[in-house]
Amino acid sequence: xxxxxxxxxxxxxxxxxxxxxxxxxxxxxxxxxxxxxxxxxxxxxxxxxxxxxxxxxxxxxxxxxxxxxxxxxxxxxxxxxxxxxxxxxxxxxxxxxxxxxxxxxxxxxxxxxxxxxxxxxxxxxxxxxxxxxxxxxxxxxxxxxxxxxxxxxxxxxxxxxxxxxxxxxxxxxxxxxxxxxxxxxxxxxxxxxxxxxxxxxxxxxxxxxxxxxxxxxxxxxxxxxxxxxxxxxxxxxxxxxxxxxxxxxxxxxxx
Length: 255
Prior knowledge:
This protein is an alpha+beta fold. The protein folds into two domains: 59-148, Ribosomal protein L6 (Outer Surface Protein A, domain 3), CATH 3.90.930.12; 151-242, Outer Surface Protein A, domain 3 (Alpha-Beta Complex), CATH 3.90.930.12. Helices cover 21% and strands 31% of the residues. Strands 2, 3, 4 and 5 form a four-stranded antiparallel β-sheet that branches. The longest helix has 22 residues, at 127-148. The protein starts with a helix and ends in a 13-residue tail after the last strand. 15% of the residues are buried. This is Ribosomal protein L6. Keywords: Ribonucleoprotein, Ribosomal protein.
């Protein structure tokens, strides 16, 4: 049934009065309905956007090492239609020469009299720029150390009958005088892998293999390829260990 006419008017008056009057909220609900500007809002994470600890550290250039900064160029990326701008940096030293390509948003300041290099980024609020800040610093530091002192990697062969030798293979070499690492790892055939141009190898002991070169990334990649033939296993501790790599042994499975 419909309400009487007088009752309807009373309801309308009450609704109009409630709309015209200010709504009072409990004190604990007031902060939830307050609007704050976008600049004053905080992210979910409580950490602040700080500078890169590595990126802001100046790099020292040792004597005999020279840096050459090139001009920006467009590098085609097969995974994106956007133009990618890069800047080449050539690091030359007594042991060789390496070239590093850095993004255009990474700022490079080279103080030649003081022999110091300081890296920065254009916008520190951009996450990808902050990520490449420290990464570029690490790459450049490895290149400077590589052309001045060199990098090494020691491979330890742990297992009965495991042996490593460095021998020439005239029929298989891709360049004159190429060295080949020959590993005996319990297979029916020896494992033979040719060294890249900028690397050297030696076997001071039958179970030790020393890799030397100026490019740390190339050395560790080659060491990882050798390690794949005998990955360290956790029951007998056998395998190929790179540098200070260790493994935690497990107890033998009992049926």
